[in-house]
Amino acid sequence: MDIRVDTDACVGCGLCVKDCPMHVYELQNNVSVPVRPNNCMGCLSCHEICPAQALEHRGIYAARRHYIDIKVCEMLKKVI
Amino acid sequence: MSAGYIDELHDSFRSDLVYRSEDIPLECSPKPKEMEQTLHGVMKLNGLVIRSLEEIAGRGANAVTYRAGKKFGHEVAKYFQKREDVEGALHELSDLLRGQYSFEVWKPEDKETFIIEENGETFIYLVFHDCIVRQTLRRNGLEQGGPLCQTLFGYVVGAIEEITGRKAKLEIVHTGPNACLKKLVLK
Ligand code: SF4
Ligand code: SF4
Fold it and tell me: Were B178 and a residue from A44, A76, B104, B111 both cysteine, which residue would form a disulfide, CB within 3.0 to 4.6 Å?
């Protein structure tokens, strides 16, 4: 798994470090570093918890999302 | 209500279709894109049932849904080939769940094998990727790990027990928006 942290965006809160059950991240000099990327099983709870949206996973399996309201998303896309 | 509206309504439920009793439907209708509202309706209904069950039965809700899932797992897996190896049983299970759930056997980097022995326990990690329960919970703003998840737990345990003849238990290790990590404990 290729995990990248936007070091400019990361605020060093350590939430991803605490949240990840596989201890993928460590805080080094107030920035999160993915030290065990191969232990990642792709749950993406770290993405949900990161207040800075600083995380990026590449090569991940994206689970089917049935709950997206297509009409609402199409409307949002037009507005944004 | 105007007569015009009633006629229009009646017309909308009529067609020239010839439907014979021997006709066997081979696909769902309408097309998936048009099924969106139905799917959302089913997810909402399931969410409401689970929420009400939790309100009335409290912690007992988990026991009810777990048992229901387990019975279903035993019932469905009855028709599958019996085998002692857990790996083979998991393979059968993934066929059984296809389309609703997908999972893989998983291990952390430092473990040699998928069957892990730790603190006197023998277990296998399972990562659930596609999961209709997770979608339903997120659609309804409900927490993961509650009674609806217990239905799936019971289902997996029931099916594994039925196929292998061994007692098993499933524990949640972590839940996320894209996947959940579970531990299948073998007894
Ligand atoms: S996706 Fe899950 S397992 Fe992977 S780094 Fe994030 S929290 Fe950890
Ligand atoms: S949760 Fe986000 S902001 Fe906080 S340490 Fe992790 S990457 Fe940085």
Answer: A44
